[in-house]
Design brief:
Elements: E1 3-12, E2 34-44, E3 49-53, H1 60-67, E4 75-80, E5 83-84, H2 89-93, E6 96-99, H3 111-121, H4 126-140, H5 155-167, E7 173-177, H6 185-200, E8 204-209, H7 212-218, E9 221-226, E10 229-234, H8 236-243, E11 249-255, H9 263-267, E12 272-278, E13 281-286, H10 292-301, E14 306-312, H11 316-324
Parallel strand pairs: 3-8, 3-9, 6-7, 7-8
Antiparallel strand pairs: 1-2, 1-4, 4-5, 9-10, 11-13, 11-14, 12-13
Length: 326
């Protein structure tokens, strides 16, 4: 197991002004601080690309900071590569690569010098440093930028440099915080290809993101965190199966042009949640159960020829909102 988390909790201190400390004895609960991660339990297996998703403030970045040793947990345990992140933090950092959400580099330092600096932190032998740097720069696609100052790099190039830094020590596990955040569509596509290539090479990837479409395109497994707790996890097929009959049904109906869709009759059906019509297409969202036959019957009775009818499987976005809407 690459990551094992048991009852991991992080509560931020309240930071009470000194003159208010006397108030603790009367309103103690008000000064316990903010609960960011609440008895989190989860596992990430070797070889997975694990998408860690949740609303803003759900606890994603706080969890990652505890995993990489930037922040101590209040309670609970976290094992990374079989090592305790608190007791064996230095050994953990030697076996992982970490890419923060917003990479920052000194603007007047070159790409090559940045990576030389990090190579020394990783204790890479001096005779191997330049060879290793060229290798990771080729992997991330910026070998031609090695002499450029960091201040001259685009945001996308800085993201690639940050990933190159995370790959210097040949990590078993990559921990990425919002890896495609802020990139344009072409940059996101290139980054997805790059992460798939790294996964195929045997590296386990744990990535947090609020970009559900990106997670769905690359992840083999997904975990959804809400209010600091993992509320569901599995691969997309498993999550769809968990939703089962409780899932909302989405039916897309294409009818013959110029047909008058009996929208009022369909809206009167008890299970209908939403109905939208654009040109000759109707999209229906309904509560659990297959209502396609009933919809088809109403359309036929109203002389509205049906060209096609498709029941769509719930996507990651549907699953996400189904679990975090409360």
């Amino acid at each position: 197991m690459m990551i094992t988390i048991r009852d991991l909790t992080k509560r931020y201190p309240p930071g009470i002004p000194r003159w208010k400390k006397w108030f603790r004895r009367y309103k103690k609960d008000a000064f316990m601080g903010e609960l960011a991660v609440d008895r989190l339990n989860m596992e990430v297996k070797k070889g997975q690309v694990y998408g860690f998703i949740g609303p803003n403030g759900a606890g994603k970045t706080t969890t990652i900071k505890m995993l990489v040793g930037l922040m101590p947990p209040t309670s609970g345990t976290a094992l990374v590569c079989g090592l305790d992140v608190v007791e064996e933090g230095e050994m953990v950092r030697g076996r992982i690569g970490y890419m923060p959400e917003a990479p920052s580099f000194y603007p007047r330092v070159s790409v090559l010098d940045v990576l030389r600096y990090y190579s020394k932190l990783y204790s890479i032998p001096s005779r191997s440093i330049d060879k290793k740097i060229l290798k990771v720069l080729r992997i991330v696609g910026i070998a031609g930028e090695k002499s450029k100052l960091c201040g001259k790099l685009s945001f996308g190039m800085k993201k690639r440099l940050s990933l190159a830094q995370a790959l210097l020590n040949d990590p078993e596990l990559l921990i990425l915080d919002e890896p495609t955040g802020g990139l344009d569509p072409a940059g996101k596509r290139d980054f997805r290809k790059l992460l798939r290539k790294l996964s195929d090479s045997g590296i386990t990837i744990f990535m947090s993101s609020h970009l559900l479409e990106e997670v769905q395109k690359i992840s083999t497994h997904v975990g959804i965190i809400h209010h600091g707790r993992l509320i569901t996890s599995g691969n997309l097929a498993e999550l769809q199966e968990k939703m089962g009959k409780e899932a909302k049904v989405k039916i897309v109906v294409t009818v013959a042009p110029s047909s008058e869709i009996p929208s009022s009759s369909i809206k009167d059906m008890k299970s209908i949640i939403d109905l939208r019509i654009s040109e000759n297409k109707m999209t229906i969202v309904a509560e659990n159960g297959d209502i396609s036959s009933e919809v088809n019957r109403l359309l036929v009775e109203n002389n509205c020829p049906v060209r096609s009818m498709v029941i769509e499987e719930p996507e990651l976005e549907d699953i996400f909102f189904d679990h975090t809407s409360t």
